[in-house]
Amino acid sequence: MASDNLSIAERVYRARRIGMTFGRIYLGIKGQQFIERRIRPLDMARRWSEFNAESATAIYETAIELRGLILKGCQYIGSRADVLPPEYVETLSLLQDRVPPKPFSSVRDSVEAELGAPLEAIFERFVERPIASASLAQVHEATLRDGRRVAVKVQYPDIGALVRSDLSNLRVLFRAVGVIERDFDLMPLVNELATQMPLELDFVNEAHNAERVAAFFASRDDIHVPDVVWEYTTRKVLVMEFIDGIKISDVAALRDANVPPDDVMKTLIESYCEQILRQGFFHADPHPGNLLVQPPGEGRERTRLVLLDFGLAKELPPAFRKGILELASALLSGSAPGMATALHDLGFETREGGVEALHDIAMVVLDVAVRLRQQSYLDPEVAREAGDELPRMIRENPIVRVPSHVVLLGRVVALLSGLGKTLDAKVDMLTTILPYVAGLGAPQSATQSAAQPKAKPAARPASPTAPAAPPQP
């Protein structure tokens, strides 16, 4: 088993590798922008495409080599088809579930150490080749001695040390970015990661998260969370029901299965309305590797969305949930003053203070929302316009405080927007969200109280941590 600490040389190497990779890309972007503004060559589109492809490859190679938190961040970047150039999406999307796996000998050692028994004593069959491997763990298909088909998520033995090292490196890097680019304060992101990552490394916590979200949808036959096999789940090994399905971003496979992407996206948005607006607890990592689609058949009358990997989940305080509902209500009614008040109540603060300072920012967000009315993703042109306007407003009256919960909510919205672009889905956002804001419940019995959980085994090991599919890394 690997040590849970990195040597000084390893930490220095990781810091230098991260800094040089992203530093070169940053300087390259500035150089390209200078050429575009001053020289205006006719082949500028080709220049950007080549630069983006080279940059994406450099990021991919760094992520594969270093793994850890850097790889997890690059998974997120690779899912942003709505705003990123296609060269980045094409290359970095490979990180979602196709990272080179750890040797099976390491997996065997980890599982046997955690479960306290030889692999053959617990599993009738354990497939050596993983079905998915990513930032924190890899997943293997297996069959228990009692015949149940399961997915076994096994944490990399050295991942805790890598994550701690990367968090330290990111703090230094983001502080440097803040000095150079004064309009960007990325430290709330690092602080949120520092809070969430220890929870992601505890698979018992993840199992509790999965069961909690499963309870929200117990009355729906079109949304499913795989069952936890508690007798073989520990902090570093998670065993769950095995689920076959189509990766949500595989548009060709969805079409071959006669599954309309619009329907899939609508169900996904409903699931997040239920989690965020009604329950106040949500799966915060909906990248394509964590979402499967099962076409009708095998006892299913409807297409079913499967939610995987609940390591990153978030509880919203009641007051914050109330503010989100007020913001959504103002957004749907087109009230910029109402949005400004809701942003202030949520905890956003500007240098000048007061609600008035947030009004112009609310207007930009409202304009984006109007354009989102008949589509489930943010068009790149709209994103660019908002990206130009919002920094100008922030320069004139900087936002000095952003509530930490917004970091993960923003990540979810961004990931869902990227998926909407990938699926080219057209969803009526107003009619989809309105029932949740109004408290009327979603169509076809979407509501489900957490008091109606799925059946669980009679016995369960005590959790070493507070509660926070087949599992995904």
Offer a few descriptive terms.
473 residues, alpha+beta, 5-stranded antiparallel beta sheet
A few lines on this structure:
This protein has 473 residues and is of the alpha+beta class. The protein has a domain at 8-95. It has helices at residues 8-38, 44-66, 68-78, 86-92, 104-115, 119-122, 159-180, 187-200, 203-216, 251-256, 261-279, 318-333, 336-346, 359-371, 380-396, 404-423, 429-438; strands spanning 123-126, 132-133, 137-144, 149-155, 223-224, 237-241, 246-247, 281-283, 291-294, 304-307, 313-315, 349-350, 399-401.
Q: What do the pLDDT scores average to? A: 80
Helical content stands at 40-55%
- What proportion strand? 5-15%
Termini gap: 19 Å
Q: Main beta sheet, described? A: 5 strands, antiparallel
Number of strands: 13
Please tally the helical runs, counting DSSP H or I stretches of 4 or more residues: 17
Order of helices and strands: HHHHHHEEEEHHHEEEHHEEEEHHEHHEHH
Radius of gyration: 23 Å
Global shape: globular
Oligomeric state: single chain
Catalogue the unreliable spans: 443-470
Please characterize this protein's 3D structure.
This protein is an alpha+beta fold. It has a domain of 88 residues. It has 17 helices and 13 strands. The strands form four sheets. Strands 1, 2, 3, 4 and 6 form a five-stranded antiparallel β-sheet that branches. Strands 5-10-9-7 form a four-stranded mixed β-sheet, covered by helices on one side. A two-stranded antiparallel sheet has the order 8-11. The two termini are 19 Å apart. About 6% of the residues have low confidence.
